[in-house]
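USER:
Try writing one entry.

ASSISTANT:
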Amino acid sequence: MRGKRSKQYRKLMQSYGMTFGFREPYQVLIDAQMIQDTSRFKMDLLGGLERVLHGKIKPMITQCSIRHLYTLPVPQSEKDPLILLAKSMERRRCNHHDLDEPLSTLECLSNVIDPKKSATNRNRYVVASQEEEVRRFCRGVRGVPLIYVKRSVMVLEPMAERTVGVKEGMEREKFRTGLRAKPGKRKREPEDEQAGKVPEHEEDELVDGEDKENDERPAKKRKTRGPKGPKGPNPLSMKKAKKEKPRPEKADVEHPASAPGEPENRPDSETTIIERATDGTELPLGKRKRKRKHKAVQLDELRHEIAEDNKLSHPSE
């Protein structure tokens, strides 16, 4: 397949997908004549369909088309490969198997593609047929891609006039909807925020509603955001700071009230009574520093006491 034609087919299937909702895998209805011609041209039918449609496919065949292959006026050795290929595809039930003779390809496929005669391809079938009558009928149904083989080349037909009309109508409707819809607000750039600029659509809104805002309520101040800097740490992952316990400050020592007529039993100064320790430090009265005595001093005092006791016990000596 040439590159230019392949590109056209890809765009055509994209249009079918956007307008009628076609999606992969594409459901391809294949008739008996298509199987015969591709076998005669030594073509890979399923691979060629995937290349033309630019996607995966789900090949389907009706019960009537399989019965047409059984009734071919050719030797059995030639029919067997065609029947095996048809049986490898998914069978699409057309409910014509009860008839003694199979219906023609046109009658069978018309009942499968458009059973309610509404001229719409509800099940989104792609039709691969070699019969001109079938393709002519499918051109009257909206949204039916058509494939056929011409001189060992697989061709995808361009959109029919009726299908093109539906596509253009949908595009016009989208265009009108876009005009009626209110345009969204443009996001402010950080440079505009720093400079204090206001987008054009916001300026128009401010000019139109300036009198109303002045009458009803004062205008709200716009918040200006500064440039984004480095983000701080996650507060949940941080270790909680320990709260420092305030040191208890002892208030003035409260003294019991003195009896009437007696002088007040209070120190001269209103400050806390402080005692000076031996090493020169000042301590509150409640916390006196214990005086430590050395062993030598203790021994001397003990000897002195023993000597005095001896004197008292033996005064004559």
